[in-house]
Amino acid sequence: MTPALKTQDLVKEFRHPMTMKKVRVVDHLSLEIKEGETFGFLGPNGAGKTTTIKLINGLLRPTSGRIEIFGRHHRDVGVKSRIGFLPENPYFYDYLKAEEFLEFYAQLFGIPRDERRRRVKRLLERVGLGDKAGIQLRKFSKGMTQRLGVAQTLINDPELVILDEPMSGLDPIGRRDVRDIILDLKREGRTVFFSTHLIPDVEMICDRVGILVEGALRDQTDLHNRLAASASPCEILVAGIPAETFERAAAMATRTVARGSEMMFEVPGDGSVEKVIDLVRAAGGRILSVTPQRESLEALFLREVRRTDGARGAGREGAA
Amino acid sequence: MKVWAIAYNTFREAVRDKVLYSLLFFAIALIAASVVLNRLAIGQQSKIITDLGLASISLFGTLIAIFVGIGLVSKEIDRRTILTIVSKPVGRGRFLLGKYLGLVLTLAVEVTIMAICFLGMLAIYTDGRIGPALLAIGLIFAELCVVTAVALLFSSFSSAFLSGLFTIAIWIIGHMSADLRAFGQKAGGAARPITEALYHVLPNLRNFDVKAQVVYGLPIPGDLVTYVLLYGAVYVSLVLVAATLIFERRDFT
User: Fold this and answer.
1) Any CB–CB contact under 8 A between A81 and chain B?
2) Chain A interface, mutation test: which of B9, B10, B11, B159, most A Cβ atoms within 10 Å?
3) Which range of residues forms the domain containing residue B101?
4) B210 assigned to some structural domain
5) Residue of chain A minimizing CA distance to B18
6) Within an 8 Å CB–CB cutoff, is residue A83 touching chain B?
7) Would you tell me how many other CB atoms lie within 10 Å of the CB of residue B84?
8) Which of A78, A104, A149 is nearest residue B5 as measured by Cβ atoms?
9) Counted domains in chain B
10) Is the whole model's pTM more than 0.90, yes or no?
11) pLDDT tens for residues A200-230?
12) Does B236 reside within a domain?
């Protein structure tokens, strides 16, 4: 199947305006997003996420490399009608009313008048701005602008939705709403590509994540596989066991913590978990909790960022 | 339809901008003031009203063309509204054409309002003929179309401030390009090819100015008008093509 989005060896360099030295912001980035997939594009600030997204949307010209959307060149006007795009911290024409704004954008897709009216009304309702249709955008708060931004992203009923930091600057309610909208898009079978530096959002929403550090893709992870990993170690919290049982369980654990009458065993995921549980129950103890210790996305993220920092440090030492 | 949508939005932005109303107010005030001056100038009859009226339309039209024109694209870039527009299925050339037509439409409305006031004065206070005055206004509008295209061209690659400077410079030189050429021919040497090149590249805006003929009741040949309008249309087309070529290559960071 043709991927929804594909980049191959994408490079973007900018020239420093004073020194004229080239700065590479995106470094041989190759990505492939399948149709219907929700892909989280993670990276620290300044990693090149926004630049990559602007390259995909044709706002910047790549220095080298290729970008294909649904198998066609990304700047093809026909392909653009299948994409919805929300830039980071969007700003819109503040002299327009919300409905005029959406109406205008719908016209840019050549949507007929009656259909336009219907969509504008429906989308304003969907993003919770149904009662703000007649208000000028200059009176909109940041959260309202972001919601309207999401609405304009969906005006053409896009197959591929590209969102740059859609949660940034939103309060918890706004973030939850945007997250719910992304989950809806996913349910509707659309492909969603979104960048963020907020990890909990990604863990909850995405099928797959890519971690971008200094313009290069460090890791691509299938979150389902990661979460389903059965061999992950567990933390078992128990109470009310005799000293002898404690000794035997501790022998199987990689780490033990005693806290008053409660004890915690960190046990490798190789069958020892069941053995420890049986042991505790046989001794009349209580199992308080069993928590699988998956490597969290955050840990992965931090490791990738640190690895780059470390390599850079080593490079500097080598040069010195 | 897409070009029209952008044009209409540009028009709507201009119409909702208060600066435009103040310019229009001053223009109409100046046209009205010509009636007072007309009373002072016994024997001159329609000349002052015609002269001042046409000059006001030209001056305020140019001010609007330049000050709105230089912001047409740079404002979209500064405010980052360009990001969502250019990522829609609208070619960059069509975007520029839409912006251009939007301002031309704005100017058409402004010039029409000023013209109604002016022609009204002319009809009430003088026995001056309306026809030639109308022709002069038509040519002023054609000149404004050229100035707008030049402002848009600069706006497509530089800031509003620089675009303003460039456009005003071109407007001034454009009104004296024939003098520039004559000067080059007299001076000779290296100045000659330079002034000759400038004469051909820069718009010859004096072509559009028939105020003197109208004021003094001199004839305006029809083929001259046709030639000037054709010249304007070709010039605008070339400038818009150049703006598109530049704009196509632009990065929006």
Assistant:
1) yes
2) B9
3) 2-248
4) yes
5) A95
6) yes
7) 23
8) A104
9) 1
10) no
11) 778 778 888 888 888 888 877 777 666 555 5
12) yes
Q: How far is residue A148's CA from residue B28's CA, in Å, rounded to a whole number?
A: 40
Chain A residue closest to B91 (CA)? A77
Residue B213 included in any domain: yes
Q: Is A194 on the interface with B (CB under 8 A)?
A: no
Rounded alpha-carbon distances, angstroms, from residue B195 to A189, A202, A312, B176, B186: 64, 63, 57, 11, 11
- Put simply, the answer to whether A108 touches B251 (Cβ < 8 Å) is no
Q: Which two tokens stand for residue B43?
A: 């024997």
**What is the fold, at CATH topology level, of the domain defined by A5-227?**
Rossmann fold (3.40.50)
Region A230-292: CATH code: 3.30.70
Cβ distance of A95 and B16 shorter than 8 Å: yes
Strands of the sheet containing A262-267, edge to edge, are A255-259, A262-267, A234-239, A286-292
Q: Among all residues of chain B, which has the CA nearest to that of A74?
A: B87
Residues (pLDDT < 50) of chain A are: 315-320
Q: Where in chain A is the domain with CATH 3.40.50.300?
A: 5-227
Tokens of B176: 């004296």
Would strands A286-292 and A38-42 be described as parallel, antiparallel, or unpaired?
Answer: unpaired
A59, B84: Cβ pair inside 8 Å?
A: no
The segment(s) of chain A belonging to CATH 3.30.70 are: 230-292
DSSP string across A129-181: -GGGTTSBGGG--HHHHHHHHHHHHTTT--SEEEEESTTTT--HHHHHHHHHH
User: What is the structure's pLDDT at A319?
Assistant: 42
